[in-house]
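Work Package 4 report. The design task specified in the project plan requires that, given a folded chain encoded as structure tokens, an amino acid be chosen for each position. We show below one input record used in the internal validation round.
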């Protein structure tokens, strides 16, 4: 009897926690396995509610990206912006992100800028995302955004080569998720509570496991991309493949170096390029314009002392771009729009 009563109380508490989290903290991780990207991605029209960095609530578009519906007919100038979570920008309301600000700056000028950011992505995903969106967006201009970890993230994947040894694609070798992965994905997609616990504690657990692995293995990290930290030439080869992919399609491409700085306190700033400057230089050598927003953000921080990254409910100065950072980035890109649409 007591066991049955306790079970009922437990279920009622879990249901109450689920409703509370779903309403005030986070929506379920409305994601699906996408074989084209070989990754989990937002469902079309997925509901987003996040409070771990800032506060956001909105819906993804028909392709699972952070945009308003595409206009019909499409404008004559169409810009596709490819990047990771800094481009996806789910940490601020859509009305406040830098791509919306760009669209607002060029309203009435027959221009659209489309957000193709994929959280956790790196430049190896850019050809896949372009192929997926080409028919819908029909871009003439493509902006490839680089983040501070892209040099090493490019080394996460094996590559496919032709008979002459040239890269022809990436081989992530993930395949379809296991049965356990499918069940876990179903739980994330239907429970805001489980999704919140996953996002809240998964980084902590991973860090704990990593520290234990280092202790047991005598500090020998065996993860592929970390054991190959010095593989600069391998990373640059993969990056050249990505750039050539877009050049061969006769698209006008621009490389943008996204914010790599951390503001720890007023007057304190640290730049963490982590090799992304090498990727930028490789693009320059191939004749591709490179725009680096970091000097602009550095100047603003020196004048205002206000960080462009981080939120009051996390660590100001660390993390993703906040509302101020998106405004600065959007205005700066608007000033460089002649380069992007040259």
């Amino acid at each position: 009897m007591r066991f049955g009563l306790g079970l009922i109380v437990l279920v009622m508490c879990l249901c109450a926690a689920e409703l509370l989290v779903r309403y005030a903290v986070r929506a379920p991780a409305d994601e699906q396995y996408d074989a084209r990207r070989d990754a989990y991605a937002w469902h079309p029209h997925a509901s987003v509610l996040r409070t771990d960095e800032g506060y956001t609530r909105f819906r993804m578009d028909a392709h699972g990206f952070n945009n308003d519906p595409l206009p019909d007919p499409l404008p004559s100038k169409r810009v596709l912006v490819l990047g990771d979570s800094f481009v996806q920008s789910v940490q601020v309301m859509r009305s406040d992100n830098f791509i919306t600000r760009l669209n607002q700056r060029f309203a009435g000028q027959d221009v659209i800028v489309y957000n193709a950011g994929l959280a956790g992505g790196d430049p190896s995903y850019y050809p896949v995302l372009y192929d997926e969106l080409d028919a819908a967006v029909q871009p003439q201009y493509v902006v490839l955004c680089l983040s501070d970890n892209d040099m090493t993230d490019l080394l996460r994947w094996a590559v496919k080569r032709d008979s002459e040894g040239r890269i022809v694609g990436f081989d992530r070798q993930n395949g379809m998720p296991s049965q356990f992965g499918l069940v876990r994905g179903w739980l994330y997609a239907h429970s805001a509570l489980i999704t919140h616990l996953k996002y809240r504690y998964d980084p902590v657990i991973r860090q704990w496991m990593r520290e234990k692995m280092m202790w047991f293995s005598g500090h020998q990290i065996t993860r592929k991309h970390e054991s190959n930290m010095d593989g600069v030439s391998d990373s640059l080869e993969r990056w050249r493949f990505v750039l050539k992919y877009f050049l061969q399609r006769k698209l006008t491409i621009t490389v943008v170096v996204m914010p790599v700085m951390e503001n720890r306190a007023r007057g304190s700033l640290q730049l963490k390029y982590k090799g992304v400057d090498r990727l930028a230089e490789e693009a320059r050598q191939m004749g591709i314009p490179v725009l680096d927003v970091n000097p602009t953000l550095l100047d603003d921080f020196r004048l205002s002392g206000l960080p462009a990254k981080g939120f009051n409910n996390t660590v100001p100065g660390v993390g993703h771009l906040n509302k101020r950072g998106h405004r600065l980035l959007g205005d700066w890109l608007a000033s460089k729009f002649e380069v992007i649409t040259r």
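The radius of gyration is 21 Å. Validation will be extended to a larger panel in the next phase.
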